[in-house]
Structures are given as structure tokens and as C-alpha cells.
Amino acid sequence: MAQVLSPLPGTFYIKPSPEEEAYKKSGDVVAVGDTIGLIEVMKTFIEVKSEIAGTFTGYVAEDSLPVTASQPLAEVAS
Amino acid sequence: MGIQRLFIANRGEIAVRIIRAAKELGITTIQAYSEGDTDMLAVKLADEAVCLGPARATESYLNIKGVVAAAIENRADAVHPGYGFLSESPEFARAIENAGITFVGPSADTIERMGDKVAARQAAEAAGVPVVPGSKGRIESVDEAVEVAATVGYPVMVKAAAGGGGKGIRIAENEEELRSLAPQAQQEAAAAFGDGGLYIERSVKSPRHIEVQIVGDGEKAVHFYERECSLQRRRQKVWEEAGADCLDNATRETLCMAAVALAEAVNYRGAGTLEYLYDESTKEFFFIEMNTRIQVEHPVTEMVTGFDLVQEMIRVCGNEPLSVSQDQVKKSGHSIEVRLNAEDPFMQFMPWPGKVESLKIPEGEGIRFDHFMYEGYQIPPFYDSLIGKLIVHGKDRADAISKMAVALEGLEINGLKTTVPLHKALAADPGVASGDFHTQWLEPWLEAGNLKPENT
After folding, report:
1. Whole-model pTM?
2. Which of B162, B290, B341, B394 could form a disulfide with B114 if both were Cys (CB 3.0 to 4.6 A apart)?
3. At CB < 8 Å, which residues of chain B contact A?
4. In A, which residues are within 8 Å of B36 by CB distance?
């Protein structure tokens, strides 16, 4: 099991916008470079991309809450 | 002085600025903060502090009910909204008024009126403030368009009367172009909106951004001269000056007195700014909007006039008359402010909310640094990236630019990436020195690669 870490401190979002579905759900295939979430930092949105390929297991950070740099956001089984 | 307990419904450098002004007036300060801001300087400096809620602004600084309840609970008799957040929310101002608390700003009705583009334009026209000339109503034919354009003046912008956005917008330099473009615009408008009606207004090309600072006491108003804020990136001001050297004295006088007329016409109370587009080639200025709050760049006006605008706005909102008459407002020299953001200017201005490892602040005559940092402070990632403003005052514009270059050399903020390199490059740039720029100048300058590590 590998983890996708937050590149920056900020607020983590699992969806592209409140009305849309989460980027990934359990069982989805994850390729390197896939977006798994967004970090809002100083009013700028930055996409969080996976550096691992495998199967999405789930989010470990909660949607719309603050995260610190290097905090685990999601898990991928490789 | 009516106000005794001032609640500060803002954060960052402006909260620090308001606390300092209030303390000099002998007012007790109550600082509001979010869970993301427990370590901020304003909390340490204020007499009292109250937590509003979670870091997310909608649950703290933007939560009208929560902020009003906190102000009541902490027995505030006045609320200062700063800039941004709820500072121009008529709902917030009204809720504060209804709680029997003084809002440090204009009335909710004035905020509402000046915040509505059409109503603000009407108020400006009624007070004799020029607005961008345009057609009174919809235009149905090409001949009518040509007739209107002759009175509005070329170049003109032709757009669809219905709908918004960029659909159907065209710019015609003369009658010939208008005759060929208007039918296309009509067709496009009809296709996009099912309505071929057009609207015409003057196209102000490469305008400068000039604004006038006013303060009113609800009856009388005075101006504190103008600022120029033409250096912008993504519509955000980057470098601001007082005064605007591109204006001649007659134009400056007309521009400033028009602002006073509008402020008095709406019984303005507090500090406000009228923003104008200025066409240097024709010396024409056009009102765009009024900001009904203190602005980020207010220090440059304070430097050239010697008045404390934050104290003045607190006093007039506490029911005192203006402490100054127009003939007492004199300006001397030239002032420049640069906005320091926690961003990496070499990486597309990517935010950089780091920890301030060490801080060295330039000192000397005519140098001011408004900020909220201290060594060991972790800049929170939840709010905008402004970390401070470096302000200088020189005997003229050239002197102010060279002072800015020296002050930037003396500033050290370690642990973060900041926009200091951008400002060093601007302070050394011949285009900036010549003053020959406009609101569309900075972005192409950046795209052309003028910001290089060796220039800074």
C-alpha cells in the first residue's frame, strides 16, 4: 500500500467542484499523473497528482479540511 | 470620542494597521481570528481577542451571523471591517447597524448603491463625474450605430445589448470599420442571444488606473489627492504610487473635485476610493467604480499628505466631523508602495506559505513597512498571499524609485519565496522609470522574460 502525500499545506478537496463526484473511488485504476484531489492554497487551486500506479483504496484525509505539507491524502494499492 | 471598544473583523496586515490606529486614539481593541490564525500578530497586539471559528473563511471571517454575535458578546461599540472579507457587504453593515453597533464605513444603503454598477454609474453622472460614454439604449440599425458613435467618439466598442460575456464584442476605429463590423456584431448577437440589438461605448485603450482617496463625515467630504495603480497582474495591483505624475494640475484638480462632489452627493461617511480609467492621449478620465472601504494602498496617500486615514475614518464614523478642511490637505513629494506576496515569481507566482525563519526590515527616513510577520511565524495557507507592503517617500518620483531600490536591498525575509525579486526588477526597469506604462503593461513585460534572476 502506498500513499499520496500533500505537496503543500492548504485545504484538501476530493472533488473538482462541490456538485461533482470525487476524483477517485475505491477500486478505480490509478495511473501515474492522475489527479486525485485539489489543494487550495492562498486562494489558488493546485491539482494533486499520483506518483504511483495501482488501484485506488480510499481517501485518508477528509474533504474540505485543512492539511499540512506531506500529510497522507489517499492510499493506492500497487 | 464615541467609540471605545473597536472590534476588528479582519486579519493580516490590515488588522495590525487598525489596532495601531485605534491604540493611538485610546480605543480598546478586540481582534477577531479564525482557528487558522491563532498565532497572528494582531492577536498578540490587541487588548482582547476572540475566536470566530474554523480556518475556512466562510465559517469565520465571512460568517455574518458569527461575526455579529461575537461583536455583541464582546461588548464592541464599533466594528472595523478592513478590506476584503465583509468590508463591502451591505448585509453585514446592516446587521451591525441593527445590533446598535457603529460600522466603520458608510451606511449599508450607500454600500449597496455604490456596489451596484448601474446605480453607481447613475450616481456618478448625476454628480458630474464622467463615465465611459455610451449609447443610452439599444441600437437597432447600422445607421443608428454610426450616429451614436459620432457623439461617443472613436474608437468604439460594439457589443450585444442582450447577454454578457465577450460574445459579439468588436472594436471599430472609425466609421468605415463600424459600417462593416456592426452587421457582423448584429448577426452574432442574434445567433447567441436571439436578439440583434447592440450597445455602443467608447473603447478606452491601454488605460491607466487612477484613483482618488476621499474621506467623508456624512455631510462634507475632502479628497487626499490621487494614486496611480497601473502596474497590475491578473487585475491585482502590484505597485502603487501617489501622486500620478501623468496628470497635469488642471486635470488632477478636476478629477479630485469630481470625487468630492460624488462623495457629498451620497452623504458619504468613512474612507472611500473612486477608481477611474485615464486615457493619457486625450487626457480624459472615466469613473469605473467606488470602493467603500480603506484600501490596501492607502499608505502612499498617508506618506504624501501626512494624514492618518485609518484614524480619520474611525473618528468620522464615531460621529465626529472631519478633522481637516480641503485647503489643509497638502501633498509633498512622491510615494511608492510594493505589495509583497508569499509567491514564487519565477514559478508562475505559485503560492509559498512558508515559515518566517528570519526577518530584516529596512529602516530610515521615508521608509515604512506594513506587515504582520515575526520570526518563527508560519504563514497560514488559507487566505490571500499578501504578507506585507513596503512603502517609501521621496522628494520626487525618481527619488522614490531609487529609495525603493535601496529599501528592497535592505529587506530580508528568509524561509519563504516572495515577490521581492519582481519589485527589484521593476525598480531597475527603464520603462518603470519613464512612467510610460498602463494597465496592460506588466503582463506582456513578464511574458517577454524581463524578470530574470540576474535582474534582481
Report:
1. 0.91
2. B290
3. 36, 55-56, 342-343, 350-351, 353, 381-385
4. 66
